[in-house]
What we know:
The structure is a homotetramer of 356-residue chains.
Chain A: E1 2-8, E2 16-21, E3 30-39, H1 41-47, E4 58-59, E5 63-71, E6 88-91, E7 94-95, H2 101-105, E8 116-117, E9 129-132, E10 138-140, H3 147-150, H4 156-165, E11 174-178, H5 182-193, E12 198-203, H6 208-216, E13 221-224, H7 230-240, E14 246-251, H8 256-265, E15 266-274, E16 284-286, H9 288-293, E17 298-301, H10 307-318, E18 328-332, H11 337-345, E19 351-354
Parallel strand pairs in A: 11-12, 11-14, 12-13, 14-15, 15-17, 18-19
Antiparallel strand pairs in A: 1-2, 1-4, 3-5, 3-9, 3-19, 5-6, 6-10, 7-8
Helix pairs in contact in A: 1-11, 4-5, 4-10
Amino acid sequence: MKIRVSVLREFNEPLLIEERELPSLKEKEILVRIKSSGVCGSDIHMWKGKDLRTPLPLILGHEGVGVVEDIKGKKQDIFGERIKIGDFIIWDRGLVCGNCYFCVIKKEPSLCVNRQVYGITRDGCYATHIILLKETKIIKIEEKIDPAILVSASCSGATAAHAISQCEISKEDTVIIQGPGPMGIFALAFARERGAEKVFVIGTKRSEKRLKLCLEFGATGILNINETSFEERISYIKEETKGVGASVVINCTNSSSALREGLKMTAPGGTYALPGIATPIGDTPVSFYEDIVRKNIKIQGIWVSDTAHLYQAVRLILSKKYPFEKLITRKFSLKEATEALKSVDTRKVIKAVLIP
Amino acid sequence: MKIRVSVLREFNEPLLIEERELPSLKEKEILVRIKSSGVCGSDIHMWKGKDLRTPLPLILGHEGVGVVEDIKGKKQDIFGERIKIGDFIIWDRGLVCGNCYFCVIKKEPSLCVNRQVYGITRDGCYATHIILLKETKIIKIEEKIDPAILVSASCSGATAAHAISQCEISKEDTVIIQGPGPMGIFALAFARERGAEKVFVIGTKRSEKRLKLCLEFGATGILNINETSFEERISYIKEETKGVGASVVINCTNSSSALREGLKMTAPGGTYALPGIATPIGDTPVSFYEDIVRKNIKIQGIWVSDTAHLYQAVRLILSKKYPFEKLITRKFSLKEATEALKSVDTRKVIKAVLIP
Amino acid sequence: MKIRVSVLREFNEPLLIEERELPSLKEKEILVRIKSSGVCGSDIHMWKGKDLRTPLPLILGHEGVGVVEDIKGKKQDIFGERIKIGDFIIWDRGLVCGNCYFCVIKKEPSLCVNRQVYGITRDGCYATHIILLKETKIIKIEEKIDPAILVSASCSGATAAHAISQCEISKEDTVIIQGPGPMGIFALAFARERGAEKVFVIGTKRSEKRLKLCLEFGATGILNINETSFEERISYIKEETKGVGASVVINCTNSSSALREGLKMTAPGGTYALPGIATPIGDTPVSFYEDIVRKNIKIQGIWVSDTAHLYQAVRLILSKKYPFEKLITRKFSLKEATEALKSVDTRKVIKAVLIP
Amino acid sequence: MKIRVSVLREFNEPLLIEERELPSLKEKEILVRIKSSGVCGSDIHMWKGKDLRTPLPLILGHEGVGVVEDIKGKKQDIFGERIKIGDFIIWDRGLVCGNCYFCVIKKEPSLCVNRQVYGITRDGCYATHIILLKETKIIKIEEKIDPAILVSASCSGATAAHAISQCEISKEDTVIIQGPGPMGIFALAFARERGAEKVFVIGTKRSEKRLKLCLEFGATGILNINETSFEERISYIKEETKGVGASVVINCTNSSSALREGLKMTAPGGTYALPGIATPIGDTPVSFYEDIVRKNIKIQGIWVSDTAHLYQAVRLILSKKYPFEKLITRKFSLKEATEALKSVDTRKVIKAVLIP
């Protein structure tokens, strides 16, 4: 069978549309017709050659949802329901071995030493079809939902869920989200779902539209760093928290200065989670004594996600309590993939998706 | 009643022996005859004027044990047992309000906004006697034990207990202790008590005797940073952990380079606790992406301790499973207090105590 | 100063209105004009003499809110704000010693061995005024709110918060609340706040109005045990949870049969919390193998609450996300206290309050 | 290839020695020469037909260790080390799917809905050889150790590790172990490893030798229920814990009366774990109010174990800190399997193993 794919052959060059001949399915493999593939910030990094692990040529796209076109043998979703042709599904972008120290002893599959990722270490979803290996964890979607809306659960949603799972949030707590991109917006919604009394989002002028969207997602307040000074932001947060600071701060940016600011905002005994630091940002000088030890805070690195997190992001979107449809500001065809990358890079869109 | 005290009147100058007239006891206050007062590393900082909060004049000494000489009214220890004249006791050096957000809502009394400390924010134990205020949490000691041995539970022991309580240690885990001072030695013993399979201690040439003592406390191995390169230490740890790294690293030094090294040694999914960073060390440049996020680790600031931690340190010493008597390498009289400070500063001793 | 109180002098007899002369305030004591006092289910038990600890005579009323009429000295609320005459306040009904093993070592003040309770072990809020002892933890209310609505945070709200704090609830989880009384309704709202995907409430025909109110509080579904069989309820829950069961079940009844049913509904690996079993119900026969071990579940006893839980209940009501005003179905004057007790006993009301 | 096995063909009848022809290995399967197979208490239940799930005919034996005789393809242990012919290995008796809700979302593989067990739901280790399916989690043993000593890690050791992992044990805590069988002795050693200050073991006259062995494993004290009254035991524990009770009680018996006694011994705020209730014991009447709610305790059902627990039990034995060799009081040949079952049933031995 022939499929069409969009291939990264040279860094910084346009992706190329090609035809590929698919191999026949092996036992428990699934052929999926991609209905929507998300364009993630890390796709930009890979395209520019900034992610040194990127194998060339590569079909990008680690976020995907689609419809089952074929299956070899019997395969079940994570609830034991048999997957059938025609089912609408989403899947964990990561493939884990289920046999290593991290999978088996530490029960942290996102740290699996043999982890593979569709669209990052092997071909992904910028294509009309993809074959899902038998190890792939699959979630059947019974609810009606625009595939373009659901797809962001795959990466930004799941990673935000991972971050939230590492933060204890009490009813009375204040949460700060740094960065109103897709991951930040998911983190905001998850913080609301955990019952945080106040959730503030901090962004830049460039992300003004995103900041405003945050208010529709239930943000208590937004802070634009181009319109406020560092001192103003700190004193605003202090005032809003009776001088305590924010019990939980979640960094959904990739910036050193945000990192230093977030530390200052974290309340004594609080948690600072870092899901956004997804690519190298060099060394950041930090005063461990003043900002971490003296306040007895916890800094939690957050690396990718596992199927449990994906499932939480899926349920969040399907709850329809939040306007996730407003996140998807533009849809592109497969041959417009390069343009989609550029529009994410320049922040013309909040979230771009391909409809192959 | 007249008592003798050793007073810090000017930074970097010898402490002065003076006589003081004690006020009469108020309801639930206790007059204690000090049997032993520990000389802690932070006493050196205060003496040198490096701790800006130090009020002058001040009687140093936040570590103390002693015998009850008088009580006003009825007072109970934390097990509800009535305290009587002649009882041998230890107490929490911190005085907390029991009424603030951190005491009452977060249940983290060590973050109490009104916390006072004997020997730091108010007069301490470099004296023949001390009056314990009614808020003081007291532990009666029924077992026979040399007061000089028990006294180190007050600060380094309790803070090490606090650090360990924030680290999940499984039977199969490897723990690294950076810095074989009193706090590091307590952390080593606590890690053994938590069942860690392997515990390594890292020190310097200057602390060679301390490193050797660690072997008697059950260290699996010791590493001298003056005799090994950074790369050798890293590869040694990798080898000892089947390539995984140490699940728990505890920094009991006050050094930036140890901080950067400890991050490299922490296994994916692990914890890096920082009880040792007890005074400002300036900014430390850290690669958050490589060392924290990519490995999904937790960094835990550890600030002082509370009564629960103190009690754990007391029980550890009283278990007599570890040779804590070897920690106390020199006893000084009250008038030798300045000399005691100097011998700690130059590391001529592991732990010095005053016997007033 | 003279105040009016409603006193329980003999079990099962009408409460008597009396005048009392108040002593003068001691240091840090507060005189409060009661604005509203809640009538709790345990008041009925005490009135009937079923709670053997009840001292006679006693002014009932452990739930209360009011306005500060006088203070001796300086007193702060839990955020360090000074309390002034005219302030509208709520307080922790429990008085804890802050000095015992449970307060200091286990940090579980609700287990304090010296715990006293206004309206249970000492005089309470069925009165025009109450003097709050200096150990009382106080929360200032700045928001405008009908005192009758807020008062239920004191006991049923705080205890529900305690229960929820012991249940890990993930986004995808299903929660079952047994018993739609005030505590059950708080538990429902808290479960929604923790992000539980589905929350079902189970009640009786007698509590039909309460069950319907649950739908307004966001219950996914309600089950009336007089209209469904045990088997129907079990199979309904299985269907709604893809065969798994409810990850969290919270028993807000005081019934043995509910207890046995709740165990059957709890999913493997789940939690069954028991805040409702607040008075002796005799022995309940349970199959530990089938219902607890084979499913690897946790049963969590929940006894009363502490100030952190009270604060969470207060914030929940003040968020105005839930129609707590509909909980208060009748207000009584102080002299109608006996009638109020009877109307709670016969479930003519959901929640009754006194407006002294 | 022909192997010899001991088969259960009829309940309560002697096991029969038979020859079996082994099929050829499939990809990633391993042929193991059994060096030792443990005789577990549940084997007795199965033999007597009390475990209704037992398929006939069945080769019993869920505990096993052995040497690799053949492998098809490449297979790694949980540390990524390639398994070679001649390697001495132990493996998780449970086979889990790695794809269901409990494996993937709840990360509790011991609750896997598709869990299979060697020697329980499929043929086990009462045999000269066994073929391990590719899903089997394998741990290579590099250390020298008598296979008969190691084998008890498989089930009783792993399940005790699971129980301990659900109990928070602080340095100062007291732990009670009910039942000095192999599981109880492992629980005792694990409690020591967690640093519990005092560990008491309760047994019967019939298990006197086992109780004495507990002292060699570090028990602080032992209590024989045939020589002490219930009241004496309760008051002994109260005395030893300053009136508080035991923070952690672990029931390693299968008895209703032990269950009721254990509840009485659990301290307020404590945990009562139930790994021993491994077969139906009918209904046990319990006073939930007095024994669970009033004390705010947690009851934790413990069902089987996963590879992490197995690994902890393996490391515990290999640490050689405890005399596990004294646990194995008799070795039997394969054809003596029936006799081995009987000697376990009548408690003539502590732990029996087959050396096929």
